[in-house]
Amino acid sequence: MAQRVTLRKRQPYNTTSSRRRIVKTPGGKLVYHHLKKLPTQPKCGDCGIGLPGVPALRPREYATISKRQKTVCRAYGGSRCGDCVKSRILRAFLVEEAKIVKKVIKSQQKAGGHK
């Protein structure tokens, strides 16, 4: 007959915060080891994909690692993915170009209207 294993925490329900694994000790007893929650990777704020180069940790564990491990050396480093940063730069450039074109057309119309 299999050995009985008792819970070590007071929480009796099978929830995500009380995950456990049966482990055999060196003395031959079976005991529960309570497992920590699995970390999720930080996501890009625009498209929602996982950020490459930033480790997946539990929220409190980010306080213990250095800043260079939490970010990537780029504008919007630990917040947006490279593709989204690229599209933002491109959009900003095109908006500025559109403003310049608008200004040129307006000046040409002004010059053409006086003649």
What's this model, at a glance?
Pfam families: Ribosomal_L34e. It contains two helices and two strands; from the N terminus they run ββαα.
Question: What brief labels describe this structure?
Answer:
single chain, 115 residues, alpha+beta, 2 strands, 32% helix, 9% strand, Ribosomal_L34e_arc-type
Topology:
Elements: E1 20-24, E2 30-34, H1 67-70, H2 82-114
Antiparallel strand pairs: 1-2
Kindly describe this structure.
The protein has 115 residues and is α+β, with helices and mostly antiparallel strands. Strand 1 and strand 2 form a beta hairpin. It comes from Suillus placidus. This is Large ribosomal subunit protein eL34. Belongs to the eukaryotic ribosomal protein eL34 family. InterPro entries: Ribosomal_eL34 (IPR008195), Ribosomal_eL34_C_sf (IPR038562), Ribosomal_eL34_CS (IPR018065), Ribosomal_L34e_arc-type (IPR047868).
**Number of helices, counting only DSSP H or I runs of 4 residues or more:** 2
Strand/helix succession: EEHH
- Work out the oligomeric state of the chains in this entry: single chain
Number of strands: 2
Strand content: 5-15%
Main sheet, how many strands, which sense, barrel?
2 strands, antiparallel
How many angstroms does the end-to-end distance come to?
Answer: 105 Å
Q: What share of the residues lie within helices?
A: 25-40%
Strand order of the largest sheet: 1-2
Structural Rg: 29 Å
Sequence stretches where pLDDT stays below 50 over 5 or more residues = none
Mean pLDDT: 93
Give the structural class: alpha+beta
Shape: rod-shaped
